[in-house]
């Protein structure tokens, strides 16, 4: 996959308002919206507004302001969804990168999932 950004990915289209979304929260550098195919009672995606392909791309190349706003929006989403540890029973934060990580959209994003026990981290197979 590499770090070459595809301007036609679905999250880029959401950021350009070409595709609607169910916004949960937003700040200057990030957008949070409900997953269209939720895997938990609470399943929110957080994406940076910048053109980053994966977690490592974002961590290495985003500005301090982008990183701070992104992480703060993640925390805000956990509170809004009632899954933060100070008000709920917890959550899982997941990001996938590249083909081995089974990344489906080539735009960095974090899944915040909660509202029930999320089960084991991985289902290992041979």
Radius of gyration: 14 Å
How many E-type strands?
5
What is the CATH topology assignment? HIT family, subunit A
Oligomer: single chain
Helix content: 10-25%
Query: How big a fraction of the residues is strand?
Result: 15-25%
* SSE series: HEEEHHEE
- Please list the strands of the largest sheet in the order they lie side by side: 1-2-3-5-4
Characterise this structure.
This protein has 126 residues and is α+β, with helices and mostly antiparallel strands. The protein has one domain (10-114): HIT-like (HIT family, subunit A). Helices cover 24% and strands 20% of the residues. It has three helices and five strands; from the N terminus they run αβββααββ. Strands 1-2-3-5-4 form a five-stranded antiparallel beta sheet, covered by helices on one side. A hairpin with a 3-residue loop joins β1 (23-26) and β2. The chain is globular and about 35 Å long. The model has no long low-confidence stretch (mean pLDDT 93). The active site is at residue 109.
Write the layout of secondary structure elements.
Blueprint lengths: L9 H6 L7 E4 L3 E5 L7 E7 L6 H7 L2 H17 L10 E4 L15 E5 L12
Antiparallel strand pairs: 1-2, 2-3, 3-5, 4-5
């Amino acid at each position: 996959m590499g770090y070459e950004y595809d301007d036609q990915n679905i999250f880029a289209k959401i950021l350009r308002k070409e595709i609607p979304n169910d916004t949960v929260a937003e700040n200057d550098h990030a957008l949070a919206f409900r997953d269209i195919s939720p895997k938990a009672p609470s399943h929110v995606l957080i994406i940076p507004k910048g053109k980053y392909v994966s977690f490592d791309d974002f961590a290495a190349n985003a500005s301090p302001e982008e990183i701070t706003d992104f992480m703060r929006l993640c925390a805000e989403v956990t509170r809004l969804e009632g899954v933060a540890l100070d008000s709920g029973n917890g959550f899982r934060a997941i990001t996938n990168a590249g083909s081995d990580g089974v990344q489906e959209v080539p735009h960095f994003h974090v899944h915040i999932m909660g509202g029930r026990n999320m089960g084991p981290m991985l289902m290992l197979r041979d």
